[in-house]
Amino acid sequence: LVAMTIATQLVVALRFLMSLICALVIIEGVKTIVIPRPQPLCAAFLAVTGGIGLLSQLTSDKSLPSFKDTRVSEVRLLIGGVLAMAQCTYLMKTNASGGIYMTWITFGACVANLVIWVFLNLRLDSIGVALATGSKGDKTFWGQLGSQVRSNMISPSRPRVLTGFGVILIFLVWLFAVLLPWDDVAKHDSRWNSIRKTLTADGADAARRATAYWGTQKPLIQQSLKTNFTLHPYFAATEVWYGARWDEIINQRISSMGSQLDNEGKKGFKIEKDKCAMFIFFKNNEIPIPDLLTIAYTKDDAMKTLEDIQANPSNYKFPMFLKGCHLTQGSDKGMRPLKKKDLTEDRFNNILMPWLEKKWKQRPNDSGRNWATTMNRLLDTLEPGIAFQLPFRGMRVSPYNTPLEVKVEVIWGRAYLGLFADYHDVIALRDGSLEFTCRDKACPEWWSHGNSPDLRLKWAVENGHMEAVWALAERVANAIGIDEVRVDIFIDPSRPTKPVVNEISLSSGHEYMYHTDYLAEAWAAPHLAKSGQMQPGSWPSPRIRATNVEVVDQAPANSKR
After folding, report:
1. Helix crossing, 99-121 with 191-199: angle to 10°?
2. 246-264 and 516-530 are packed helices; what angle lies between their axes, rounded to 10 degrees?
3. How buried is residue 310: exposed, middle or buried, by Cβ count under 10 Å (0-12/13-18/19+)?
4. What is the Cα–Cα distance from 267 to 481, expressed in whole angstroms?
5. Could you identify which of 104, 254, 367, 427 might form a hypothetical disulfide with 371, taking C-beta atoms 3.0 to 4.6 angstroms apart as the criterion?
6. 483: number of CA atoms within 13 Å, CB side?
7. Phi/psi class of residue 367: alpha, beta or left (left: φ > 0; alpha: ψ in -120 to 50)?
8. pTM of the model
9. Which helix (H) or strand (E) holds 283?
10. How many CB atoms are located within 10 Å of the residue 101 CB?
11. Is 494 in contact with 463 (CB distance < 8 Å)?
12. Helix segments in 340-495, DSSP class H
């Protein structure tokens, strides 16, 4: 009697929870239609399926299903699980504020419905009844248990078993083909920040400090727009909307690049995606980079250069780096060091030359991003090449015994922050503060959603290294004429005024926690002002650079303000 009472209460609680989830799905459907870029199909689907689910829960029998016949309950649970799976799939595509967490809530509802359905479908519920039914046979505990189960358990029929495993298989295919790939992209979604800052006091404090910092930097970005910065026409084509998130603006940038390639044949994306073009641009604009030995635009030239290095090693400095100009994604593994030991006949012929052959044929692939399809179409236009570059000669003080690198976000010609990724992660701000946001689940900051002051890199602030870094990053952005860019810079501890540029990124995947939404606002606002979507006087409209020169072909003589 006690067990049946508890089970009844659990059923009531579960149905109440499912009703609440259905109501939240309806609300999310409404929000999806009133956002700046409405999604009517998602809104209609969520509202209709949420309404069906809510009606089903409110009109269902509140009593326990019959032990002998659970077919009605099984049908309801299976339909509920499939509907929740479909809702979860649509919520992955929504841009409304709650879409990110409602995806996981409906996933939980899907799992709950299907687990209970499998439990009933395979008649595992009969085990519970068996355990609750006494036996007068064996007096031992295990003997009675076995006797109860054997005498009361109902074996599922073959069709039930096949149906159960079929549903499980479909769920697993959906999980690995749809949900997990989405999660790999969505884990950096800035909508999580609105949840993080409400969960803990540390998260709320970190968000408050990010807001205060934004208040100090906003007028400086606006001042840069008015005085120092001009925008290359290539980057003026990005269409944004009020409230656009960081990842959405990047997606719009990539879309505009695809449109400009199709309609006008413009290839401004080569400023990052073609390392050879990027290095040449830096050299033409006198931007410091590690010494560049040569660039090979044909495989024969690359092979001849390698053969000359092997034949005359005393004429070269080691190590050097071979960089595939067309392989700019980290997953492409388009870079390798070249050391003296690689020049032996065995390693040269069996390792180095096959690597060159493989990388020359390899096509770049920007996977795991919302914009992957468009970006890969752009990358397919790149010609292969190999750059031979000497290493950065500064002191190696990073935790991995590599050059100390800071990734600087520059918005409208103003450096906003720098991220030291090797420290997982330390963020440097323009006011001289350093924030440590740990990316390891063993750290308190991971669970508190906050950050703490960090002193490990204080020397870079106090000795003037960061001032030189900010200036160099802004110099790169102004030379390109780009609204937003991440400039990756090497720091030499022994030479505070001599940082050098490693590379740049037009689609940064790094997470800046509570700073992300303010970076997005700063990026979008001048574009909105340009299109007349901002209140007059709130943000200046960017001045467009008067040039028809391709982005990568700009030099001081033809990029005058």
Report:
1. 80
2. 40
3. middle
4. 15
5. 254
6. 27
7. beta
8. 0.84
9. helix 275-284
10. 16
11. no
12. 345-347, 353-361, 372-379, 444-448, 458-462, 465-480
